[in-house]
Amino acid sequence: MKVAFQGEKGAYSESAVYTFFSVDVEVKPCRDLKEVFESVEKQDVQYGVVPVENSLEGSVNQTYDLFLTYNLKVCGEIIIRISHCLIANPSTKLEDIKTVYSHPQALAQCRRFLERFGRELVPTYDTAGSVKMLKEKGLKDAAAIASEKAAEIYGMKILAREIEDNPENYTRFFVLSKEDSPRTGRDKTSIIFAAAHIPGSLYNALGEFAKRGINLTKIESRPTRKKPWEYNFYLDFEGHRTEENCAAALKALEKSALFVKILGSYPRAA
């Protein structure tokens, strides 16, 4: 089995892959999220793992936008604890550092530490990729924010541990596939829909779930990118799309919404 993820070896997305599947799978590191989606769609890999939201910094908007472009399903979710380290080359001391590199989400999750540290911040495409870059370029006056695993893989030194603003720092990942999952009795479903631009349309759309006793776990709006101030809504709810009440709610929504796309049903992460 081969699984794609965004980032370099040692990225948090790679940890999510091993958490969901096992350490025995073959992984394909991808430069960006689009490449993960493309790898699954072209069947270069059987699965992809992408981040969708962080408990401190919110949604990964690019992931949600890519679901409109690619016809893939969500077949699973993973939630992992994110603990950041300040990492540098083995000879680098804390006082030597002038610049800190990392993914924008990681920099944001360590905002208080970095404000006290008072160094230049440079966003990069990946946490582990930042560590790899420090090693390859031999930078002695810079550090990166990434996982302990990334420091181990690239033979780098950890200068500080657990530098995130809040210990309740978790990231949720989706598992991408050509098909979603069968019913397990502990499922969630994710969809995208657009409500008509008339009074009460969103209220009525959500009411289809409320009157059937279906619990909504998330709703998010994103610009359609077609017309200013028009939005698509991303919705997660408890239950499998094939369950009678869920299927009825989706059918009713399809009658009133401008469009509905079912991203998939999958077992809830612990």
Tell me what you see in this structure.
This protein has 9 helices and 15 strands. The protein is an alpha/beta fold. The strands form 3 sheets. Strands 1, 2, 3, 4, 5 and 11 form a 6-stranded mixed beta sheet that branches. Strands 8-7-9-6-10 form a 5-stranded mixed beta sheet. It has a 4-stranded antiparallel beta sheet with strand order 13-14-12-15, sandwiched between helices. Helix 1 (12-20) links the parallel strand 1 (2-6) and strand 2. Helix 8 (201-210) runs antiparallel to helix 9. The radius of gyration is 20 Å and the shape is elongated. The mean pLDDT is 95.
Give the SSE layout.
Layout: E1 2-6, H1 12-20, E2 26-30, H2 33-41, E3 47-54, E4 58-59, H3 61-69, E5 73-81, E6 85-88, E7 99-102, H4 104-109, H5 111-117, E8 120-123, H6 127-137, E9 142-146, H7 148-154, E10 157-161, E11 170-177, E12 187-194, H8 201-210, E13 216-223, E14 231-238, H9 244-256, E15 259-267
Parallel strand pairs: 1-2, 1-3, 7-8, 7-9
Antiparallel strand pairs: 3-4, 3-11, 5-11, 6-9, 6-10, 12-14, 12-15, 13-14
Helix pairs in contact: 8-9
